[in-house]
Design a protein that fits this description.
Helices cover 11% and strands 38% of the residues. A hairpin with a 4-residue loop joins strand 3 and strand 4. The chain starts with a helix and ends with a strand. With 130 residues, the protein is mainly β. Strands 2-5-4-3-7-8 form a six-stranded antiparallel β-barrel. Strands 1-6 form a two-stranded antiparallel sheet. The radius of gyration is 27 Å and the shape is globular. It is built from one helix and eight strands; from the N terminus they run H-E-E-E-E-E-E-E-E.
Length: 130
């Protein structure tokens, strides 16, 4: 009996692992939403409107806070983390981060755009980067 007990582990190892059944294909997953908790940097491309098109008369240079309206209806009060940039001049485009006071949930339909508002008028627009 003892030799059989010694051979059993070797026989099992020689047979290899049991075959795995293939997983059934899943239905197409619904479009997901992109959630950003408050105070977490949201990577964006920000396009400042030129002053001639209703944008700011001067650059954004210091601690700026304003209203940001995201496509799909979400709005939040956000600041702009400019990284190493000294200022954001009207008519320019930059990759920066929005730091919003509250959580932001983007629409799951693929829209990733937003508008930066000052006194209710747009002064910049952009898109959330992947």
């Amino acid at each position: 009996m003892r030799p059989i007990l010694l051979l059993l582990p070797m026989l099992l190892a020689a047979c290899g692992p049991a075959p795995q059944e293939a997983a059934a294909p899943s239905a197409a997953a619904p479009a997901s939403r992109l959630d950003y908790p408050g105070k977490l940097g949201i990577p964006v491309r920000l396009d400042m409107l030129p002053a001639a098109e209703g944008g700011r008369a001067g650059p954004i240079a210091g601690a700026w806070r304003g209203e940001v309206a995201f496509d799909g209806g979400a709005t939040a009060r956000c600041g702009i983390d400019r990284g190493g940039l000294a200022e954001l001049v009207p008519g320019s485009s930059h990759e920066v981060r929005l730091i919003c006071a509250s959580a932001v949930q983007l629409s799951g339909d693929g829209r990733r755009g937003f508008r930066v508002l000052e006194d209710g008028r747009p002064v910049a627009s952009g898109v959330v980067l992947p």
